[in-house]
């Protein structure tokens, strides 16, 4: 497993090494951002194709490094249940997800090693080891939740936390990349500090609102509640349908079961879906207002435009997912849109912060 992950990581490591960028370390960070975004999207594909238990143990597949070696065990399981959860295709989807996750872990270990080595030699701020050390422990926590996702058989709260930690890792790496950019090209701009302070507060609020929506969206996905409402804006022909919030939002329970072990009622799935759908309106309003205020400031305008575009596409893809009965591609794109919003809001937050901290242009 480790050798496979190292082979996967060699390509991005080589890209950083041969880069003509003035800072290979900065390049390595942004490559990790790109791959983490890809991992989140592929993780959504893994979840949406029910491949999370394609290999029912962890970290290997039936104790082996890849599905090729576990061919007999997988085929035996597939013969008993032809549609899964264990099939050869699903096993490969799950293992590719694991290989990519381990490769990102290797990239973060490389960042950590370079940071400590350069810091001890030069004491340059760009190589301060505190942040990459924190990233290392964070990605270890993420890996632990990845393992528990399998060993606890897709328990919804564990899978949702795994998703949130993945989004958190993307945000942390994006912030780190922004920090490296600013250290190489310090910000200096004529900006209205009062307006900038307002944008900073709104950007932080937007991040918190998006975090809540990410949890709600993850809770919908991990409980398979996407089609609990098949019309919009009504749900079951009503504005406020029959809903069971107690069972729907009880966190510690098995997939498809109540805390008492009974089958989860449909009204609980309706509650999960309905809350996510309606909180989306809060997200659109808060993020839209934040982007509108940031749009008035030239240094922040490109990110504000991108947020507006992704927010609009995200709303449309969410509605289309309902009307088109949850097509796989659209559902994956909806997850990708959520990751893009995390990335863009992180960029807005760090750019506003560094502009606020930077000296005004002379």
Automatic annotation (TrEMBL):
Subcellular location field: Membrane
Keyword Ribosomal protein annotated: no
Main location group: membrane
Transmembrane stretches, start-end: 99-119, 131-151, 157-178, 199-220, 274-292, 304-326, 332-350
InterPro entries in the cross-refs: COX15/CtaA_fam, COX15/CtaA_HemeA_synthase
BP terms from Gene Ontology: heme A biosynthetic process
Record has Cell cycle as a keyword: no
Pathway info: Porphyrin-containing compound metabolism
Membrane topology according to the record: Multi-pass membrane protein
GO cellular component assignments: membrane
Alphabetical UniProt keywords: Cell membrane, Disulfide bond, Heme biosynthesis, Iron, Membrane, Metal-binding, Oxidoreductase, Transmembrane, Transmembrane helix
Molecular function in Gene Ontology: metal ion binding; oxidoreductase activity
Official protein name in the record: Heme A synthase
Native source organism of the sequence: Pseudoduganella armeniaca
Lineage: Bacteria, Pseudomonadati, Pseudomonadota, Betaproteobacteria, Burkholderiales
């Amino acid at each position: 497993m480790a050798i496979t992950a190292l082979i996967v990581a060699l390509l991005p490591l080589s890209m950083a090494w041969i880069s003509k960028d003035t800072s290979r370390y900065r390049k390595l960070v942004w490559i990790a951002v790109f791959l983490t975004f890809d991992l989140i999207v592929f993780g959504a594909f893994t979840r949406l194709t029910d491949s999370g238990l394609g290999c029912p143990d962890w970290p290997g597949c039936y104790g082996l490094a890849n599905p090729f070696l576990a061919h007999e065990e997988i085929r035996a399981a597939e013969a008993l249940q032809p549609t899964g959860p264990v099939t050869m295709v699903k096993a490969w989807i799950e293992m590719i997800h694991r290989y990519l996750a381990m490769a990102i872990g290797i990239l973060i270990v490389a960042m950590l090693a370079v940071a400590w080595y350069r810091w001890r030699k030069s004491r340059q701020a760009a190589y301060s080891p505190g942040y990459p050390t924190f990233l290392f422990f964070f990605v270890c926590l993420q890996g632990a939740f990845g393992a528990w996702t399998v060993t606890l058989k897709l328990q919804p709260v564990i899978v949702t936390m795994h998703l949130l930690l993945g989004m958190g890792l993307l945000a942390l790496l994006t912030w780190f990349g922004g920090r490296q950019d600013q250290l190489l090209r310090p910000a200096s701009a004529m900006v209205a500090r009062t307006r900038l302070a307002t944008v900073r507060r709104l950007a932080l609020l937007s991040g918190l609102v998006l975090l809540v929506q990410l949890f709600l969206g993850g809770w919908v996905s991990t409980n398979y509640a996407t089609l609990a409402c098949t019309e919009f804006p009504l749900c079951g022909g009503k504005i406020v349908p029959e809903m069971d919030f107690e069972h729907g939002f009880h966190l510690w329970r098995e997939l498809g079961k109540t805390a008492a072990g009974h089958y989860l009622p449909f009204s609980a799935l309706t509650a999960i879906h309905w809350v996510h759908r309606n909180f989306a309106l809060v997200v659109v309003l808060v993020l839209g207002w934040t982007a509108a205020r940031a749009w008035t400031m030239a240094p922040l305008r490109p990110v504000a435009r991108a947020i507006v575009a992704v927010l609009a596409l995200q709303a449309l893809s969410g509605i289309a997912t309902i009307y088109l009965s949850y097509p796989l591609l659209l559902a994956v794109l909806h997850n990708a849109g959520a990751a893009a919003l995390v990335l863009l809001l992180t960029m807005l937050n760090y750019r506003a912060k560094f502009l606020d901290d930077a000296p005004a242009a002379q």
